[in-house]
Amino acid sequence: MKTDEPADAAERNLTEWDFFLLWAGAAVSLSEIWAGGLLASFGITTGLLLILLGHVIGNTPMALAGLIGSRHGVPAMVSVRGALGNRGAWLPAALNVIQLVGWTAVMLWIGGRAAAGLAGGAAGARGWTVALGGLTTLWALAGSRVWKRLQQIGVVLLLLLSVAMTALLLRTCGWRELAAAPATPALPFMPGLDLVIAMPISWMPLVSDYTRHAAVPGRGGRGTWWGYFIASSWMFAVGLLAAVAMRSDAPDSALLRLMGEHRLALPALLIVLLSTLTTTFLDIYSNAVSAQSLLPRIGTRPLALLGGLIGTGLALFFDATKYEGFLLLIGSAFCPLFGVTLTDYFLLKRGRYERADLYRRGRYWYTGGVNRRAVAAWIAGLAVYQICARAAFPGGASLPGFAAAGVMYLALMHGPNRPTRENP
């Protein structure tokens, strides 16, 4: 399939349950367990409140972004053309390619080392990294019809293994002892909430790449919301509990060691392998889709193969922790971007794009293919995000950046000499 053409009827074959499994699989990962551990200083009660509230807030714009793709059959970086313009969307597409290659490498690097810690020792990390890179690339190449079968087997098994992991943690540590642990918050409530919100929001540049395959648009969004909400909240909670119980700032590693100590090394290894596969294949496939929006003459498969090879190579030869901050900087651009996009789609365009014009010189051409007011609002929202993040603003950074971009865009588009959409 090529992204210079919308998904046709035959390709729109994923049900609500398929989306539930897809995004539950994305959420069950070592990185989400680790992120939950960052809330340990709040204690169990406040920490769980932050997790649930943060996922309700963060999942909603994620699902709304996916609704655009499912209604019109278009991927994420095509959906932003309605606001930024046909050419204006090139910049976020390029940024998405860069960040997704990087995150592919980070996830493979983490998975390879975690697997080696359970089987093979440090010397086996490269072998595990290569194996995971190959398998995730093949998964990404398989296409939506094969994903359905893989998710039905792989994610269900992963969820069952996660139940065993959670039960072991609670049985070993005891719920009463966990609940009685003192809370000494290391940061205010809102920045803690922002840590949670940032996780589902980080999927916004990818979500329409999958919801465009929805057989029924509304149900695709609903399956996405609930699948990610339940599994991600669960993994955050596991990380929180493990960090409090084990007094560890690396609850993901601590949990794997705990399973090994209880003769559950094989289930722990399967969790590492399956969680890496079900999360990282999304990065590889979406990287190809974003690249294809820039290079429409090249097919998805060659681009997915190339992205998988580059990501695996980076994981083999570079320490992922050295460039994770750079990837987070790029990723911060997408929160205000979708503040602009969702404002444009739901408020200004009243929930409707002309799909054909997203692919040609039409009503979304604006001025030379770029809606300068949308770009200005995006930059302003990004500036607000960065200022809030660097100044440790009590209200966090995600919501202020998202809201500032949307409000700025709405004000600019209702100002004098607003751009004409209908006549390029």
Overview of the structural elements:
With about 425 residues, this protein is mainly alpha-helical. It has a single domain (about 15-80, about 90-320), classed as Hydantoin permease, CATH 1.10.4160.10. The chain has helices spanning about 15-25, 30-35, 45-70, 75-80, 80-85, 90-120, 125-140, 145-175, 175-180, 190-200, 205-210, 215-245, 250-260, 265-295, 300-315, 325-330, 335-350, 370-390, 400-415. Helix 3 packs parallel to helix 10 (about 190-200) and helix 3 packs antiparallel against helix 12 (about 215-245). The two termini are about 30 Å apart. The relative contact order is 0.19. The mean pLDDT is about 90.
Helices and strands in order, then pairings?
Elements: H1 16-27, H2 30-37, H3 43-72, H4 76-79, H5 81-84, H6 90-118, H7 125-142, H8 144-173, H9 175-179, H10 189-201, H11 204-211, H12 217-246, H13 251-261, H14 265-294, H15 300-317, H16 324-331, H17 334-348, H18 372-390, H19 398-413
Helix pairs in contact: 1-8, 1-12, 1-14, 2-12, 3-10, 3-11, 3-12, 3-17, 6-7, 6-14, 6-15, 6-16, 7-14, 7-15, 8-12, 8-14, 12-13, 13-14, 14-15, 17-18, 17-19, 18-19
What labels would you give this structure?
424 residues, mainly alpha, 19 helices
Report, as a whole number of angstroms, the end-to-end distance.
29 Å
Structural class: mainly alpha
Q: Oligomeric form of this entry?
A: single chain
Total domain units = 1
Tell me the radius of gyration: 21 Å
Quickly name the level 1 CATH class. Answer: Mainly Alpha
